[in-house]
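Complex 365.
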Amino acid sequence: MSIPIADPGRWYRAHAQDVAAAQAAVIDSGRFILGPEVQAFEAEFAAFCDAPHAVAVGSGTDALTLSLMALDVAGGEVITSAHTAIATVAAIERAGAVPVLADIDPRTRCLHPGAVESLLGPATRAVVAVHLYGHPAAVDELSALVAGSGVALVEDCAQAHGARTGGRPVGALAAAGAFSFYPTKNLGAMGDAGAVVTADAGLADRVRRLRQYGWDGEGISRVSGINSRMDDLQAAVLRLKLALLGDSVLRRRQIARRYTGVLAGNPDITAPAEVGDIEHAYHLYVVECAARDDLEAFLAGRNIGARRYYEQPCYRHPAYAGLGRSASMENLEAIQGSLLALPVFAELTEAEVDTVCAALAEWRV
Ligand SMILES: *Cc1c(COP(=O)(O)O)cnc(C)c1O
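Predicted structure with pyridoxal-5'-phosphate bound:
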């Protein structure tokens, strides 16, 4: 029996009847795109984020692209972390801006406000703060940095459903928050889906138009847009899972607490930190270990799935070579080769968590 790094099928097998009933109702209704299930999901997801507006779109990448299009970044620069999913960088380019990559804070693994400050310039239109692995980025510091400058702050919340900072959920802490519902995310659909969350009614309205050819209420294209809509079969499943999301994030946090407790007694593996007044959503539990490859092989020998996410900084991918040219990446370079993700998802059994804990307690360099 192996312990996978993620296993979205487990939840569906446990809730097969509810999923089938919800999808049968959609099929019966004959409403498949931006229908009643999508509208209900938008309202419920906005409430989950303590935000007035959520706009359902086709993917997390599209949520970020549409947020940036609505903020008119085309022709300018957008600063983001060099340590993120390539999707973040791809969305900036698709919105017509030049991505500018910045170093991270090695404790949070998120954008370093000081690094952002040194890259802000007359061409900067926005900063995308990625709440990587589920740890909220330094939104307050970043907001203060761009306040009054006309530079927008956008949250990439693709890994942070249910994370909080200062007691507030991520998503509507800045101009807009982009969520992904890719199947393995904290809230995952049975395919691609995403949402933009915002407190700004005007921005929500612009995203609603942009997701559908720039149409106004009469189907007249007032601006040029794209096609990126959520379908009702996904929304129906997301509504079922959203009702359980709070508990599911608590379970992730509980598993993380057990791993961190064990690692306090192992000097050779460093647990992820929780920096400041935050609630980590633990989309991924990523340790640091100087002998990372040995640890990975040891865990594989115990049938424990571990994985290197973002093994290369974005600027080392051939398509994006050179994007980090103007900045020091010393914090990222120092930890990049030692990062390893361990299994954390709500459906892990207690016996599986015990097995991982025993392996973490035993391994030494
Ligand atoms: C998953 C992810 C995305 C993209 O989401 P998709 O739904 O796969 O398009 C963007 N940013 C981050 C940080 C992600 O993890």
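The mean pLDDT is 97.
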